[in-house]
Amino acid sequence: MIPKNFIQDLLNRLDIVDVVERYVPLKKAGANYVACCPFHNEKSPSFTVSQTKQFYHCFGCGAHGTAIGFVMEHAGFGYVDAIEELARSVGLEVPHERQAAGESYQKVAPDLYEVMQTATRYYREQLKLSQRAIDYLKQRGLSGEIAAKFGIGYAPDAWQSLAAAFPDYQSGTLSETGLVITNEEQKRYDRFRDRIMFPIINVRAQVIGFGGRVLDKGEPKYLNSPETPLFEKGRELYGLYQAQKAIRAGQQVLVVEGYMDVVALAQHGVEYAVATLGTATTPYHIQKLLRLTENIVFCFDGDKAGQKAAWRALENALPYLQDGKRIKFLFLPVEHDPDSFIREFGKEVFEQRVQEAMPLSAYLLHEASQELDLRTQEGRNQLLQRAKPLLTAIIAPTTALLLRKEVAALSGVSQAELEALYEIKPVARAPRIAFQKTGRAPPSAHRLLLQCLMAQPGLGQRVPGEWHGQGAEADAVLAVLMVLRETDFALSSPTLAQLFQGTSHEKTLAAAQVDMLNWGESFDVGAEFTGLLNKLDEGQRRQSFQALQAKAQGGLASMSDAEREQYKHLARPAPARPVE
């Protein structure tokens, strides 16, 4: 857990323009900086960076956030990794604090990475000494250059070979990193023995785990590092570090199942492949890849296991689909995996298959309607039942709408009937004529109040504790006030925005911040804030007075003493707040 005051200190030392310019060339445009968005393809710049307000926003795809959020999105870092990367850039060391009692927190010791690096060097040296391992890699078609690029090594067929690399073989760090196992008799031995070793590298070029493959027949075919303070397999992808540049350049990533698939594809010039680490594709994998690229292609074997893995990937992807980004599925012949297919048919044929991969929508409809007779009422009924959990999981509006239309057509019902059956609320649309006459509606008083708090968090001290409002924007104001009160109103604007990343109020705050880009240099935040509080106070006074007035029509006797006092108080004009 990273302390909030460190996040504030870090963001105060950073300039978001400097951070973004490490990755994207910016051009000055008035008070802000602009560029073509790094998160989607575009020809004219819609990506804006505000130096005064310290956030970025893309008017094309909606990407929005602070310096921390940008590094997470652009580099594919997790939250902690992004903070550590930015902290290093300004010479800070990230502190970690323990969580409350009952919760576990384990700080990653700096020397664990050194342990993994030492093991990597040892395994690579052992590969050079094992002709059998070298012959195996050559037989699989791998060159020395590719083996070096991926850091491939060899674990000797011995129980304690790592003792040669670690004189203190009893060190707890070897167990903590999963390199050695201690049995019930407290005897220690190497986890990986007689295996080709594939280092698993994070996006910061650090070895966090290993995958080991048997040379001959044996079980398990692949053996992975266990979960450790460095390694969580559900969040990592093999080969992502090596493939990042190619993925960004081609705006496409290929997700396969095995380490050898990734390495063999790279050997043949397909450098944008990654692999899951002995687990099904997780939501974290989907989110990480969608930050990096416009297109994801899942490439699975055509057998039952491959079909099952593909369907699991589809189910986990649905809640994270984004309009304009594409997910496809490629199924190879049953007798092939990507490694064997590209070795037999070559890069050109393989990449043609990639281009012809089945879109997610087509795969979903094919599987949902498989073995159903849609000429019968029963078949159409089953399709509607199968499709419901899939379609209702999709948040991307255009994708969801088009799929609902297709399922409705296949089922012989109207779109409105399907949406009623699935209990999907129709999207409200403003009348076209009214929109043309009035243009964009002005921001609400609650949104303006939220903007003032985001711009100058210290203003929150002037909001009475009993203040309340209705709607999502008022709820966001209350949430911001709660956080500010907990920190004695000492948070900076970027820190406040960062704390709400990933919460239910994130989009509301982002929309409020975007409007702030239109503020002129002479905009008086304090005066605007005072006027808003007076306006909102008057509205609340009016509502309370009207409610008491309605009750008073039955006579003052029908009111409690407190209500009569409040009624008299509200009947008097309220004093206006002075502008501070």
Question: Could you describe the 3D structure shown?
Answer:
- The protein is an alpha+beta fold and 580 residues long.
- It has 5 domains: 4-89, Alpha-Beta Complex (DNA Primase, Chain A); 111-231, DNA primase, catalytic core, N-terminal domain (DNA primase DNAg catalytic core, N-terminal domain), CATH 3.90.980; 235-365, Dna Topoisomerase Vi A Subunit, Chain: A, domain 2 (3-Layer(aba) Sandwich), CATH 3.40.1360.10; 369-421; 445-571, DNAb Helicase, Chain A, CATH 1.10.860.
- Helices cover 47% and strands 11% of the residues.
- The protein is built from 24 helices and 16 strands.
- The protein has helices at 4-13, 16-21, 67-75, 79-89, 111-129, 131-139, 144-149, 172-176, 240-250, 259-267, 283-292, 304-317, 338-355, 360-368, 377-391, 397-411, 415-421, 432-438, 445-455, 472-486, 493-499, 506-516, 525-552, 561-571; strands at 27-29, 32-35, 47-50, 55-58, 64-65, 153-155, 180-182, 188-190, 195-201, 207-214, 222-224, 252-256, 273-275, 295-300, 326-331, 358-359.
- The chain has a 5-stranded antiparallel sheet with strand order 1-2-3-4-5.
- Helix 19 packs parallel to helix 20 and helix 19 packs across helix 22.
- It starts with a helix and ends in a 9-residue tail after the last helix.
- Residues 99-110 and 428-439 have low confidence and may be disordered.
